[in-house]
Amino acid sequence: MIQSLYQRLSLTISTVLFIILISFVTWTQCVSEVSRSQAEQKLHLGLAEHLANDNPLLKQGVYDYKALESLFHTLMVLGPSFEFYFVDPSGKLVTYSAKPGDIKKQSVDLRPLLQLIEEPHNLPIFGDDPRSFDQQKIFSVAPVYNNDTLQGYLYVIIGSSAYDSIFTQISSSDHLFQHSAGLLILVIILMFVAVLLFRYITSPLKQLGDFIHKAEEAKFDLTELTMPQWSNSDNEVHQLGNSVNQMLVTINQQMAQLTELDSQRRQLLAHLSHDLRTPLASLQGYLELIEKQHAKPEQQMHYLQVALKNCTQLKSLIDQIFELAHLESGHANVQFEVFNLGELIYDILAKFALKTEQANITLTVQPKTFDAQVYSDIAKLERVLTNLIDNAIRHTPSGGNITIEVSEHNKQYALAVRDTGLGINAKELPYIFEARYKASNSQGCKKTHAGLGLAITSRLIRLLKSEIKVDSELGKGTEFTFAVRKATDALN
Fold it and tell me: Any idea where the Histidine kinase domain is (predicted)?
């Protein structure tokens, strides 16, 4: 069973070529036969008329048919390629040059004879062959009159049976057979060359198909495949091969990313489960102590305060989880507007005044007064600054400083949140904005926190069409910087 494209193409094209060859040979023979008949009939068109005018038996009308038959035999000896017949006005044979046993038909159709007499330019015209029931041949014809009375027609067939026999022998001769054999060999060679060309053309396509099949078996893992090299030519198959290679590289990268994302998702779920379980277990424990009612009122109040603290921590974590999920879903709306950056910063500082005072941390703004009109989403920018300041407070020891610095750079204002806290290890800096990651400086931190603030901050910064950068050194502090657009330049 033929399966490959190369085999199907070879068989199809070979069959088509063979049919075309047979059709061409047949058509050529037909054209050659018609052309030969036309030439011979035109060459001998006046033969019957000359015989009728030059021969006394025919010139004055036919009376002696035996003498006419003898004349026909004599003419046939002189011209063996002709057959002579005398036909009466009804088409019946009166006399002829052939032997009586060779005649199959005793009459001929007069319509071709009259057509040749009236339209001698419309050649070839074929008439009935009395030696055959259905065969027709070219001829020459002339009417024979006695005074003005039509006695019949001199009907001369061009190409007698002897001529046909000799022509058949010549056609079947060894010389013609050799020519036919040579033509057949030439056709076979051409078909063989065509098959080789098809193999050359389709081999890259077969190579590409085999490679794609191997890629499917390897589940598109390029580590188990050797990609074929394709030239950068105008060959469409090579161009397709390069596209397939690039497609497989992209698929492999995306599969690797999906695998990594799935791993990160699992780790994030594990971390979140732990973060949720810790305050929930503490809350449950203290509530159970209160339920037993054995503790003193002072102890019960302490238990309630701890339980409330755990509830607050649990709510903060759940809120952050929902906020992060909303940001990653791509459905978060951004509403850009013009507002005063200084007013927003001092409003945020007012929220943290009590918290920094209790932690003995100094929170300042540089410069202290400035008028900066920016174009951004005020709610999301407030959330970013709140997260960064809260993160700085959490990792800054008592007596430390947190500074919010605003500077002008071209068409933007750069904001920096700088602290003198614990700092972050340089190896951990590329990962601190991942939701699943918790830096080592958070281990053992006594201040409660959810751990998703920087992940949320990073995604909010992207929505604000900016980029956050971090610079940190262990024991010296951390600085987060990002930029917001000026209102005048953003609206122009």
Answer: 271-488
- Show which of 128, 151, 172 is a domain's final residue: 172
Tokens of 450: 């959810």
Distances (CA, A) of 139 to 123, 156, 231: 11, 5, 68
Over residues 270-324, the pLDDT tens digits come to 666 666 676 777 777 777 777 666 667 777 777 777 778 778 777 776 776 776 6
* Per-residue pLDDT tens over the stretch 423-453: 988 888 888 887 655 555 554 444 444 457 7
CA angle, corner 115, sides to 111 and 117, nearest 5?
Answer: 120
Structure tokens at 134: 């259905």
Q: How far is CA 186 from the centre of its chain?
A: 39
| 388 in the same domain as 278 | no
Task: Spell out a b/e string for 63-99, using b for 16 or more CB atoms within 10 Å of the CB, else e.
Answer: eeeeebbebbeebbeebebbbbbbbbeebebebbbbe
What is the C-alpha to C-alpha distance for residues 466 and 411, in angstroms, rounded to an integer? 13
Quote the domain boundaries for residue 109.
Answer: 44-172
Structural domain total, the chain: 3
Q: Considering 125, 154, 172, which residue would you say is the last residue of a domain?
A: 172
Distance CA(290)–CA(301), nearest Å, equals 9
pTM of this structure: 0.46
The Cα 34–Cα 120 span in angstroms is: 16
Residue 83 sits in a domain whose CATH number is: 3.30.450
For residue 408, list its beta bridge partners. 413
Rg (CA), the chain: 55
